[in-house]
Structure to design on (410 residues):
C-alpha cells in the first residue's frame, strides 16, 4: 500500500495555556467566578433558604387591584426563571436576558425581531437545526435569508454587498469549528445598523463574551455547557440594550417560548460548577486533539487550539480558551466510523454536547442530517467526520478508549 509521509504534527501551544491562566485570574474574572457560584444565594424572603427555592406555581395572588407585585402569571414572569436570567446576564456582561425552553426557541424568539423585507445573513455551516429553521422560515417569507461565508475577507465582502438587518454568527462553528472574527463582523454589520447575534453555545461565557466583542445579542442552548449535566433542554437570549430587552420579553411572553421553572432551577444548579467543568473538559480536549493529530488512522483534526487550525490566531485573540469541542476525520469514511464507534466504551454515541460525560457524534447521520447532503458537503461535514464533546473524566481513560477503537479501524 502507498504510504504517505506524515507532516510533522503541530501540537497545542503551551505558551497560550499559561496566557489562559493569566486571563482567568484577572480581577473581573475572579469577580465573575465568585458571583456565579453565589448566584441567587441568600435571596429567599420566606425562610432564608441558602439555595433559592423552586417556584413551580403558575399563578401568584395579587394584594389588590391597585397593589401589584412583580409576579402574577408564570408565563410572564417567574422568580426561579428570573434568578437564572440574572445569572446569565451577569456572565455574558449584558443588561438582561430571556430564558427560553430550548436553544431553538431562543433562535425562534429573536427571529421575531425581523420583518418580511429584512435580510438576515447566517453562516453556511451553522448548527443543522438552525439551518433548517432559517431556511424554512425564509421560504415562508418571514424574512429574507442569505447563507454566507464569514471566515474570509472575500466571503465577508460578498456577504455585505447588500446591507443586512441581522447577522448571525456561530463561532466556533458546529461541527468543524471554523472561527469567525466577531469584532470584524460587528464593525461591518453596524455600518448599516444591523443587529449582530452570536450563538455562544460552544464556548459558554466563561471562554467567550460576544457582547464585549461588539455583538448585540447572545443566545445559548443552555442544554449544553451552561446546564452541563445533560438533564434538561433549555435556552437563553442575552442583550445589552433596554429597548431590545423589552421587545424580546414581550415576544417571549406572547409566543410562550419561555423556559420552565424546573429547568431554570436545574440550570442555575449546573452553573455553579461551570468554571470547574469547562476548564477540566478543555484541558482534556487539548490533550485528545494532540493525541488524535498524530494517529495514523486519522485524516484530519479540527481544534482551534492547534496552531495549524486556520482560525487559531483569531481564537487566541477573542476567546479565553479553546474549548472542549473537537472534530476529526477518519481515513476510512463511513465504514471506519461504524467500526470505530462500535468499539468505544467510555465515549457514548449520542447527540448533544457540553455535559460532564464524554460524547461522540456522527454529524452526517445525526446532528446535521436535516441540512441535506448538498449543504453538508458545502459545510465540510463528510461521512467520515466525528465530533467529540469532551467531558471531565480522567484523561487516561479517554485516551485509552480512543486508542483502542482506532486500533480496530487501522
Ligand atoms: C444544540 C444547539 C442548538 C439548539 O439548542 P437546543 O437546546 O437543542 O434547542 C443551537 N446551537 C448550537 C450551536 C447547538 O449546539
Amino acid at each position: 500500500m502507498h504510504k504517505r509521509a506524515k507532516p510533522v504534527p503541530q501540537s497545542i501551544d503551551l505558551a497560550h495555556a499559561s496566557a489562559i491562566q493569566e486571563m482567568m485570574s484577572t480581577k473581573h474574572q475572579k469577580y465573575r467566578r465568585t458571583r456565579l457560584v453565589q448566584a441567587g444565594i441568600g435571596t429567599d424572603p420566606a425562610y432564608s433558604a441558602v439555595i433559592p427555592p423552586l417556584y413551580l406555581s403558575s399563578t401568584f395572588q395579587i394584594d389588590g387591584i391597585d397593589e401589584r407585585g412583580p409576579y402574577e402569571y408564570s408565563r410572564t414572569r417567574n422568580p426561579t426563571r428570573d434568578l437564572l436570567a440574572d445569572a446569565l446576564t451577569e456572565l455574558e456582561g449584558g443588561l438582561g436576558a430571556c430564558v427560553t425552553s430550548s436553544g431553538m426557541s431562543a433562535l425562534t424568539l429573536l427571529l421575531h425581531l425581523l420583518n418580511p423585507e429584512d435580510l438576515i445573513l447566517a453562516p453556511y455551516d451553522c448548527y443543522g437545526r438552525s439551518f433548517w429553521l432559517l431556511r424554512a422560515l425564509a421560504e415562508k417569507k418571514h424574512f429574507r435569508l442569505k447563507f454566507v461565508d464569514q471566515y474570509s475577507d472575500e466571503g465577508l465582502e460578498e456577504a455585505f454587498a447588500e446591507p443586512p438587518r441581522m447577522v448571525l454568527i456561530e463561532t466556533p462553528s458546529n461541527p468543524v469549528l471554523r472561527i469567525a472574527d466577531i469584532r470584524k463582523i460587528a464593525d461591518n454589520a453596524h455600518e448599516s445598523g444591523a443587529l449582530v447575534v452570536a450563538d455562544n453555545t460552544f464556548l459558554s461565557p466563561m471562554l467567550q463574551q460576544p457582547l464585549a466583542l461588539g455583538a448585540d445579542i447572545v443566545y445559548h442552548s443552555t442544554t449544553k455547557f451552561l446546564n452541563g449535566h445533560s438533564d434538561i433542554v433549555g435556552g437563553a437570549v442575552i442583550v445589552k440594550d433596554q429597548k431590545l430587552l423589552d421587545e424580546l420579553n414581550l415576544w417571549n411572553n406572547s409566543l410562550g417560548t419561555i423556559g420552565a421553572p424546573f429547568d431554570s432551577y436545574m440550570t442555575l444548579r449546573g452553573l455553579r460548577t461551570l468554571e470547574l467543568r469547562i476548564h477540566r473538559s478543555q484541558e482534556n480536549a487539548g490533550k485528545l486533539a494532540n493525541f488524535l493529530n498524530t494517529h495514523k488512522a486519522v485524516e484530519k483534526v479540527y481544534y482551534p487550539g492547534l496552531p495549524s487550525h486556520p482560525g487559531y490566531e483569531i481564537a487566541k485573540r477573542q476567546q479565553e480558551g479553546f474549548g472542549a469541542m473537537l472534530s476529526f476525520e477518519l481515513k476510512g469514511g463511513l465504514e471506519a466510523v461504524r467500526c470505530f464507534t462500535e468499539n468505544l466504551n467510555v465515549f457514548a454515541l449520542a447527540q448533544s454536547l457540553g455535559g460532564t460525560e464524554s460524547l461522540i457524534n456522527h454529524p452526517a447521520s445525526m446532528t446535521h442530517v436535516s441540512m441535506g447532503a448538498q449543504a453538508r458537503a458545502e459545510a465540510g461535514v463528510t461521512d467520515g467526520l466525528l465530533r467529540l464533546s469532551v467531558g471531565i473524566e480522567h484523561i487516561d481513560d479517554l485516551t485509552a478508549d480512543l486508542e483502542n477503537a482506532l486500533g480496530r479501524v487501522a
User: Anything to note?
Assistant: Residues 102-104, 127, 129-130, 170, 174, 199, 201-202, 221, 223-224, 233, 235 surround pyridoxal-5'-phosphate (CB under 6 Å).
